[in-house]
Structure formats: structure tokens, C-alpha cells
Specification:
By secondary structure, the chain is α/β, with parallel strands linked by helices. It contains 13 helices and 15 strands. It has 2 domains: 146 residues, Alpha-Beta Complex (Aspartate Aminotransferase, domain 1), CATH 3.90.1150.10; 241 residues, Aspartate Aminotransferase, domain 2 (3-Layer(aba) Sandwich), CATH 3.40.640.10. 39% of the residues lie in helices and 15% in strands. It binds pyridoxal-5'-phosphate.
């Protein structure tokens, strides 16, 4: 392949906009610049109409009433609004929230804030395959529990939680059920009402829409759920989220939802074939390759693979001029930390550091996957050829049994 090819396999971080989305947005920057809250002239009415239409498109995608869609700046804000908003609104009922150790930081850090505000949070550990054990989840419920927050699909592994079963558990105990469904909405069928989810966060830029716009679904009937606003001023979005609406962004989000509704099935089928091809080729060409997380309950476009005895960040350096992926290491201020999600699955630091997340998308081609297979397997072989640990492993030394000195 030519050296200046750029292959984007980091769609779980963000997706490119679909050109059809951008085309729909453009008039709202120029000819129709109105504020959706301006009630006294046609510019305002046009903007309001456009927002209403987008709200319908989004509600239609997740099969809810459009009155139940609250626009935010993204999923981070929607997660914050759901968790802190429920904590404040239901303070009389209880102060306990349950979530998982593998949640997104937007949920975990909101929960930490709740703890600082006097709440109690239980972080339930997941099983080796990334799925929650329903018995452990149920055992965490107390008479003070007001909310269970479980993400629909994990951003690092693509593992899909048993949403219906968790919804039944919440109904049985009279607890609200919140889900960060950012990685699932627009890619697989997501219907919160069907599974008993009462609050659901998602975002436009993970489904081929623009960045900086997202939504929180808030159930309005049986039960009528309320959240305390976290951003005040003007009373937009039924008083739950003030601030001038991002009209072009919302229009784009709506169009992205409409396209997703029509195309997610064919996209998913095509991408799961490409993903499976990538996985199969890695296993066929390389030794000591492990796929992380449950492979039966998983998003169609994601694979998280550990290449044992290869350091993921170093491996990425061999191909990152051509391929964009994510590694299982996160840069903190002082060091490279292994992904807390993979550690929660029981991987050791070494396997977590040796992992790469490939997330395919609507614009990924067959040819790109063929090129990726070649570049990644070359990179892994190159790293292993240089590695004394790999040499020891090949000589039959039990690497895992060695205790490395700190010096
Ligand atoms: C990307 C992501 C978010 C954050 O969404 P923003 O719109 O960027 O704030 C939250 N949760 C999950 C699971 C995500 O993947």
C-alpha cells in the first residue's frame, strides 16, 4: 500500500460526519440563523420547526415520544444530568446509586461527585467477559437505592449488557434505570421503553453526526421521571437544560438519526463481516492473540485484541502514520496506565497494555481491512523479533511465572 494512506479505525472515539448530514446543516448557518427560542419572527419559527423535526427523527430512532428527548452538548453532559439530576430530585427517596466498574468516565466521575455530595455509590464488578452478573447487581440493591446506571455497550470492548434483564430487576425493586447508550444508539436497535430504561444518554458524533450535541431521553409516563437541572438560565428543554439550542448541530443529529434508522442493519452486517475477517486473520497469522470481552454479546464493528508480549503503544508507533486505532493504555499525567476497563475484566497489566481497539465505521472499506491486516501483523512480528521476552517465550520460558525486579 502507498505510504500516505490513512485508515480510520477509531470510530468509537468519534465518527466522521456523513456528507448527507453536513448538507442538511449548512442552511442553518446562513439563510436560517434564527434562535429556536425567538417566538416573534419567522427566523425563530424556522429554527424551532427545524429543532422539532430533528427531535422527531431522534425519537423515532429510539422509539420514544419526542417530548422525552432533551438536547444537551453531548453524552458527557447527558450522563451528568441524569446521575446528578436524579440524585438531587429523588433525595427524599434515597441516596444510593449502583453502577459498574467498566462505565465511561462521564458516569464514574458523576458518581464520584454524588459521593462528595453525600450520596453512596456501589461500583459492581463485571465478570471476565465484561458482562454484569445479575445476582451481584441485585445483591447491591438496598432500600435507599434510587438509580442503577449500566451502559448499553462498552466503548472499549463493544460488550453489550443484558439490558432487558437489568430493566426487569429495576422494575421489580422500584429503582430507576439509566443507561449510557452512546456506543449503541444508531448502530444496533435501541429501544429504552422495551427494556425498561428510564433515562438514556447518547451523542451525535458517535453516529456520523456533528460534535457538541447529544441528548438525554427522560421517560415521561409510567413512571414520570424528573431530573434537577444542572445548567440553569432561561428554562429551555422543559426546564431541564437551559441554553440556546445548537440549531445546526441538532439538525445534523436528526439527519444522522434518520440515516441510522434506515441503514444500521446493512452497515452492521457489512462491518461485522469485516471485523470477523480482521480477527480471524490476526489469529491465523500470529500466535498469542486474545480477543477481549464476550464475543457473542458484542457490537458488530468493534474488536479489542491483545497481542501478548507486545507493548500496544510501541506497536501503534509501527503503523500510526497509516492506521488510527486506540491502545489499552491511557496517558495520565505521570505515566501510561493500563485501561481500567480491561483491568476490570481481569486482564493483567501486561495483556491490557498489549491491547488494541479496532472500531470500524460506515466508511471503512474491504481494502482498508486488507491493508490493516498486513500492517498490523508486520508490526507485531517486528516488535516480537526485537523482544527478548518473546525470544524467552519461544525458548519455552514461562514468562508469567517470572518475578521481575523493580530495578
Ligand atoms: C464518547 C462517549 C461519551 C462522551 O460523549 P461526548 O458526546 O463526547 O460527551 C460518553 N459515554 C460513552 C460510552 C462514550 O463512548
Amino acid at each position: 500500500m502507498s505510504n500516505n494512506k490513512k485508515i480510520y479505525l477509531d470510530n468509537n472515539s468519534t465518527t466522521p460526519c456523513d456528507p448527507r448530514v453536513v448538507d442538511t446543516m449548512i442552511p442553518y448557518f446562513y439563510e436560517m440563523p434564527g434562535n429556536a427560542a425567538s417566538r416573534s419572527h419567522p427566523f425563530g419559527w424556522q429554527a424551532e420547526e427545524a429543532v422539532d423535526y430533528a427531535r422527531e427523527q431522534i425519537a423515532n430512532l429510539i422509539e420514544v415520544d419526542s417530548k422525552e428527548v432533551i438536547f444537551t452538548s453531548g453524552a458527557t453532559e447527558a450522563d451528568n444530568l441524569a446521575i446528578k439530576g436524579v440524585f438531587e430530585m429523588y433525595a427524599k427517596k434515597g441516596n444510593h446509586i449502583i453502577t459498574l466498574t467498566t462505565e465511561h468516565k462521564a458516569v464514574l466521575d458523576s458518581c464520584k461527585k454524588v459521593e462528595r455530595m453525600g450520596g453512596e455509590v456501589t461500583y459492581v464488578e463485571v465478570e471476565r467477559d465484561g458482562l454484569v452478573d445479575l445476582k451481584k447487581l441485585e445483591a447491591a440493591i438496598t432500600d435507599k437505592t434510587i438509580l442503577i446506571s449500566v451502559m448499553w455497550a462498552n466503548n472499549e470492548t463493544g460488550v453489550i449488557q443484558p439490558m432487558k434483564e437489568i430493566g426487569d430487576l429495576c422494575a421489580k425493586h422500584g429503582v430507576l434505570f439509566m443507561s449510557d447508550a452512546t456506543q449503541a444508539v444508531g448502530k444496533i436497535p435501541v429501544n429504552p421503553k422495551e427494556v425498561g430504561v428510564h433515562l438514556m444518554a447518547f451523542t451525535s458524533h458517535k453516529m456520523y453526526g456533528p460534535k457538541g450535541v447529544g441528548a438525554l431521553f427522560v421517560n415521561r409516563k409510567n413512571p414520570r421521571v424528573k431530573v434537577t437541572s444542572q445548567i440553569d438560565g432561561g428554562g429551555h428543554e422543559r426546564g431541564m437544560r437551559s441554553g440556546t439550542l445548537n440549531v445546526p448541530g441538532i439538525v445534523g443529529f436528526g439527519k444522522a438519526a434518520e440515516i441510522a434508522k434506515k441503514e444500521m442493519k446493512q452497515d452492521g452486517e457489512r462491518l461485522s463481516k469485516l471485523r470477523d475477517k480482521l480477527e480471524a486473520a490476526m489469529k491465523a497469522k500470529l500466535e498469542e492473540v486474545y480477543v477481549n470481552g464476550n464475543v457473542d454479546s458484542r457490537m458488530p464493528h468493534v474488536t479489542n485484541i491483545s497481542f501478548k508480549h507486545v507493548e500496544g503503544e510501541g506497536l501503534m508507533m509501527t503503523f500510526n502514520q497509516n492506521i488510527a486505532v486506540s491502545s489499552g493504555s491511557a496517558c495520565t499525567s505521570a505515566s501510561l496506565e493500563p485501561s481500567y476497563v480491561l483491568i476490570a475484566l481481569g486482564l493483567g497489566d501486561d495483556l491490557a497494555h498489549s491491547s488494541i481497539r479496532f472500531s470500524l465505521g460506515r466508511f471503512t472499506t474491504d481494502e482498508e481491512i486488507d491493508d490493516t491486516i498486513e500492517l498490523i501483523s508486520n508490526g507485531v512480528n517486528h516488535m516480537r523479533d526485537l523482544s527478548p521476552i518473546w525470544e524467552m517465550y519461544k525458548e519455552g520460558v514461562d514468562i508469567d511465572a517470572i518475578e521481575w525486579s523493580e530495578h
